[in-house]
Amino acid sequence: MKAKLFRKVPFARTGQQTYMASELGMTGDAMVTVDRPAVAVQASAESFNGVPVTIDHPPALMDSQAVQRDAVGLVSEVTFDGATGQLKGDLLVWDAKAIRAIAQGTRELSAGYTAEYRADGSRYRQESVVGNHIALVKHGRAGSAVRIG
Question: Taxonomically, which superkingdom (predicted)?
Answer without folding.
Answer: Bacteria
